[in-house]
Amino acid sequence: MKFKEFAAGLRDTLFPQNITCDLCGAEIFDGGHFCARCAKTVEFNDKTVCPVCGRKTAKPEICMECKADAPMFRRGASALVYSGGGAALILKFKNGAGYLKDYIGSLMYEKAKKLPPCDCVTYVPVTKKRRRERGYNQGKLLAEVLCEKLGIPLAEPLEKKRETPSQKSLTKAGRAENLKGCFLIRDRACVKGKTVLLADDVLTTGATADEVCRELLIAGAKEIYLITAASVEYKIFKNSAPVQDKKE
Q: Do the Cβ atoms of 124 and 73 come closer than 8 Å?
């Protein structure tokens, strides 16, 4: 038995999962992830979606955001709708509950399987300062789960060289300006000529994904697909940035 498998088995024995609700902590003991009350607040993104960005829409057609300003990635998909319990789950994961990577990553994997085959997985980098504060990069944790399940390598071509001011009150154009020049290419070879799967926690306006995709394409990536844990429903930010986004 490999050490990693042994460690995982020991962890599950000492700290069994799926005995409490991942949101409220109530005991459930049914092998699920949510109690009955919390389950009603989590919306899976499995109804009508934009065929380009993958976010929930009222009709199964390209959203006006993608029509007006096509994203840099070829196609996107997300597991959850970023509202209610879905948003609470992502925020809990980002703020200390790193163990949720396995469950959230498995949801993303089910969506990723339906995208065209990719050669590698990458993620949105954070600064060293932010990683020290949080203890981990949530995007990297999700990317590692996807790598293991998809059987493809992790690529780390970029680094984030500076912090960006809070973006939650900014429009997409404002966010794009905020992010300009904050990512630096450090390894072109790992993505050059490859189809890349970009993993992130939340798709809001798409400004962060676009900036990362732009750098990946400059580095020589052939094309990029986006997979996120959750995405904001299209109608929520028709004219402004979503109020519930807390992404740096």
A: no
Q: What's the pTM value of the predicted model, to 2 decimals? A: 0.84
**C-alpha distance across the termini of the chain, in Å:** 40
Dig out the tokens for 219 from the structure: 């580095």
The pair phi, psi for residue 47, each rounded to 5°, is -110, -135
CB-neighbour burial class of residue 171 (10 A; exposed 0-12, middle 13-18, buried 19+): middle
pLDDT tens digits, one per residue of 55-73:
999 998 999 999 999 999 9
pLDDT tens track for 191-206:
999 999 999 999 998 9
Structural contact between residues 222 and 194, judged by C-beta atoms closer than 8 angstroms: yes
How far is it, in rounded angstroms, from Cα 17 to Cα 12? 7
Q: Among 206, 188, 49, 39, which residue's Cα sits nearest to residue 122?
A: 188
What whole-number distance in Å separates Cα of residue 128 and Cα of residue 140? 13
DSSP 8-state class, residue 235: G
Give the chain's count of helices (H) and strands (E).
Answer: 9, 6
Encoded amino acid at 104, one letter: I
Beta bridge partners of 199: 123, 227
Cβ contact 107:229 at 8 Å: yes
Assign 124 to helix, strand or coil. coil
Answer yes or no: are the C-beta atoms of 166 and 248 closer than 8 Å. yes
